[in-house]
């Protein structure tokens, strides 16, 4: 839930989710459409489908217990390098490099004297993160660097005066050189297919039964974009077309 979504938006949904589905087995026992419904407006709803598929795989392959082994975690649906490392480290105390946006920014500034990390995580960044991992307390280290980036070494207004590593930060010592790479562009949302998909999906989530096509047509004026977005929801498994032409969340 926290991937690309702020804590403030995640927390109430997470509490509701964990009350309803405290274990992978509990989530796997319900249709995937219920996971999409409970996901609410967190965005990127395919994450809900992947989480449901992951819970099903954990139930079927591991008797409902989340694996502690990094390689085993990676074999689960929807689990990538970041999530596998985070679970193995934070839940089980494993020694793994956890590279989220905040951690990458701290390393870029403190070690490489660069204002921002590359757009995509590079092999060099992974090698650096692994080289910096302490032998003991790697999980605590991971949390600490993540929080440092989230609260102090922020993207737009870093609080260097409050930073515990300011004295050795390569970027600060170099005079805080400006980012030399491509301009960083914020993501637009208004008027996009993402917004259209969100509107359509909100109608399906609010309904506890089939939704007629007319009820979907009224939420977005651009018919071409609306049909493209609706086809995309069906193709992604986030919606189903029933025999009578109505729509619903996946069963």
TrEMBL record:
Enzyme nomenclature, EC number: 3.2.2.31
UniProt catalytic activity: Hydrolyzes free adenine bases from 7,8-dihydro-8-oxoguanine:adenine mismatched double-stranded DNA, leaving an apurinic site
Highest taxon of source: Bacteria
SUPFAM superfamilies, sorted: DNA-glycosylase
InterPro entries documented for this protein: DNA_glycosylase, Endonuclease-III-like_CS2, Endonuclease3_FeS-loop_motif, HhH-GPD_domain, HhH_base_excis_C, HhH_motif, MIG/MutY
Keyword Zinc-finger: no
Record domain HhH-GPD: where: 1-151
Enzyme class: hydrolase
Family the UniProt entry places it in: Belongs to the Nth/MutY family.
Protein name from the UniProt record: Adenine DNA glycosylase
């Amino acid at each position: 839930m926290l991937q690309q979504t702020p804590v403030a938006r995640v927390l109430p949904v997470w509490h509701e989710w964990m009350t309803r589905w405290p274990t992978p087995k509990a989530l796997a026992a319900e249709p995937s459409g219920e996971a999409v419904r409970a996901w609410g407006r967190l965005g990127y709803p395919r994450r809900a489908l992947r989480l449901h598929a992951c819970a099903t795989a954990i139930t079927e392959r591991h008797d409902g217990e989340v694996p502690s082994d990094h390689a085993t975690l990676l074999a689960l649906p929807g689990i990538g390098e970041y999530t596998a490392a985070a679970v193995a480290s934070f839940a089980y105390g494993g020694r793994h490099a956890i590279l989220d946006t905040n951690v990458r920014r701290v390393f870029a500034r403190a070690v490489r004297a660069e204002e921002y990390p590359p757009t995509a995580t590079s092999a060099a960044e992974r090698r650096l993160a692994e080289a910096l991992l302490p032998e003991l307390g790697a999980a605590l280290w991971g949390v600490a660097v993540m929080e440092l980036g989230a609260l102090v070494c922020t993207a737009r207004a870093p609080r260097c005066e409050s930073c515990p590593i300011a004295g050795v930060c390569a970027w600060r010592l170099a005079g805080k050189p400006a980012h030399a790479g491509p301009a960083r562009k914020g993501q637009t949302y208004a008027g996009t297919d993402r917004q259209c998909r969100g509107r359509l999906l909100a109608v399906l989530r609010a309904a506890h039964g089939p939704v007629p096509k007319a009820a979907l047509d009224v939420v977005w004026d651009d018919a071409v974009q609306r049909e493209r977005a609706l086809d995309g929801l069906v193709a992604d498994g986030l919606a189903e077309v029933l025999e009578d032409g109505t729509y619903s969340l996946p069963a």
